[in-house]
Design a protein that fits this description.
The protein is an alpha+beta fold. The protein has one domain: Creatine Kinase, Chain A, domain 2, CATH 3.30.590.20. It contains 17 helices and 14 strands.
């Protein structure tokens, strides 16, 4: 039987326990498009002086060659994570021949989606596999999905925290089982409450018409005088059917009740044939169109607003890493790129996420059935397309609630967590972050999505000009600033090392790609 929320709050208030809250680990993965100052996608390949995308630990590419991904290591200081990200961006911008980083999730003007070059990772088997995987994504969902950007926020509690929680719970399980079970409790509550994330931080309520490439959509778009498509109450079109969704995955029932059930569900999805994707073909005329024709080519294709994670060793699949070593951290994937800050995520957002995720862990977390999971999914779908609609009602355990009503209930509970974290860190940043975000419930005009629509609709500004102005300013500020954590020599050395590592991988291959792929899936 689980303890009550108040029991945990009281227990962690004890002087002997509160210090265990200070070891939170955080990492940021920020995606950003390389664009010309005129606002079009760069057709230049990944710049050589940035290093090899296959092996660089901080600077890589995501789905397309022009979609950069910046990765910070685990840090126990939110400010340090921001400083690291700024340093990575500073060096990158210095090597891009005047290109800028598009500061929004939804892409700029794209004249021809066939010109979107898929990410290249060299001639090794693993590099080829990464490229073929992306080719499969293009053939399955279209190229435009390859240029949507987001923020992934990695979060973990310290070993001291887990020891303390285990003591409070008087739990006798082995530590790996205990930690994984608790992280899955967090995941279930996150799925219940994650509608709050796009409401507070969604910043993609409008798109360039070129994004649709003439395709029909059921979304009731309006068109601004400046020529952009928008939904009046939308928060995050990136998280809608236009963005990172997969209709083939709608029939999957990935269970979040425990680690074993989750892994079984993922494995089933990887091996589940898809008639739709079968029509694409796998290897046609000697060229791979996708890795396979199953619902998921590999585990990374599972689209979810949050994932349980374990650092994988070389050649190890994510599910194998989870099976062998349990959950190490969780990855929050529902964040739009924040166009109002240079790093795409603000320090205050990190403070709020610390509170929100800690609350999700301490709040009792009943097991999920399909009906409840469907309710949570519908809540999320409704908020991303009409989250600021005053008529919107969400479903909470059979009861309809408005966004402000349910949100205020959650904030009332989270205040206790914010108070604990401020005590633990001897600060006031958590209480302030929570108070700032709660204002958005009473006044939706304070949300980033409303601010973006105000620019495009009420002020009749060009979304492109706004984004380019922000991008140009961020570039100038980055190049003028001093490094805070790294230095230029570090990045030069890492770039050289990454190229050497890629060459070593390519030279060590002994199998042809067909056999490599067969062995990978056979294992």
């Amino acid at each position: 039987m689980s303890n009550s929320y108040q029991h945990y709050i009281d227990a962690f208030s004890d002087d002997n326990h509160i210090t265990s809250l200070t070891g939170i680990g955080r990492g940021i993965e920020r995606e950003g498009l390389r664009v010309h100052k005129a606002g079009r996608l760069s057709e230049h390949g990944h710049h050589h002086d940035l290093g090899a995308a296959l092996t660089h630990s901080n600077i890589t590419t995501d789905y397309s060659e022009c979609l950069l991904e910046f990765i910070t290591p685990v840090s126990h200081s939110p400010q340090q994570s921001i400083d690291q990200l700024r340093d990575i961006q500073k060096f990158t911008l210095s090597q891009m021949n005047g290109e800028v980083i598009w500061p929004m999730s939804m892409p700029c003007f794209v004249e021809d989606d066939d010109k979107i070059v898929l990410a290249q990772y060299g001639s090794s088997n693993i590099g080829t596999m990464k490229n073929v995987y992306r080719r499969g994504l293009k053939n399955r969902y279209g190229s435009m999905m390859q240029v949507i950007a987001g923020i992934h926020f990695n979060f973990s509690f310290s070993q001291q925290f887990w020891q303390t929680l285990k003591t409070i719970d008087q739990n006798n399980d082995d530590m790996q089982t205990f930690v994984s079970d608790k992280y899955f409790a967090l995941l279930r509550n996150y799925k219940r409450y994650c509608w709050l994330i796009p409401y507070l931080y969604g910043s993609s309520p409008a798109i360039c018409p070129s994004f649709l490439q003439g395709k029909k959509t059921k979304l009731p778009f309006k068109k601004s005088d400046s020529g952009y498509l928008y939904l009046e109450h939308a928060t995050s079109l990136r998280m809608s059917d236009l963005g990172y969704t997969n209709s083939e995955q709608s029939s999957l029932h990935i269970c979040y009740n425990d680690l074993a059930g989750y892994i079984d569900g993922v494995k089933e999805a990887i091996n589940l044939p898809s008639k739709k994707f079968e029509q694409i073909g796998v290897k046609v005329d000697g060229k791979y169109r996708q890795l396979n024709s199953n619902v998921l080519q590999i585990e990374n294709e599972l689209y979810a607003p949050i994932r349980p994670k374990q650092v994988a060793e070389s050649g190890e699949k994510p599910s194998e890493a989870l099976t062998r070593r349990g959950v190490e951290y969780i990855e929050v994937r529902a964040l739009d790129v924040n166009p109002f800050v240079d790093t795409g995520i603000s320090l205050e957002q990190i403070h709020f996420l610390d509170v929100f995720l800690t609350f999700c862990l301490l709040e009792p977390s009943p097991l999920l059935n399909c009906d409840k999971q469907n309710d949570y999914q519908k809540n999320m779908e409704d908020v991303v397309v009409r989250g600021r609609d005053p008529q919107l009602r969400l479903m909470d355990n059979g009861k309809e609630k408005s966004v402000p009503e349910w949100g205020d209930e959650l904030f009332a509970q989270m205040k206790q967590v914010a108070h604990l974290l401020d005590q633990a860190y001897d600060s006031d940043v958590y209480g302030k972050a929570l108070a700032f975000e709660q204002q958005k419930l009473a006044d939706p005009s304070l949300t980033p999505s409303a601010q973006m629509l105000s620019l495009v609709v009420e002020q009749n500004q060009s979304l492109t000009e706004f984004a380019l102005s922000q991008a140009s300013r961020y570039r100038s500020e980055a190049l003028a600033a001093d490094y805070q954590f790294y230095d230029q020599q570090y990045f030069i050395e890492q770039a050289e090392l990454s190229h050497q590592q890629q060459q070593q991988i390519e030279q060590s291959d002994e199998l042809d790609f067909d056999q490599f792929l067969a062995n990978y899936f056979a294992s």
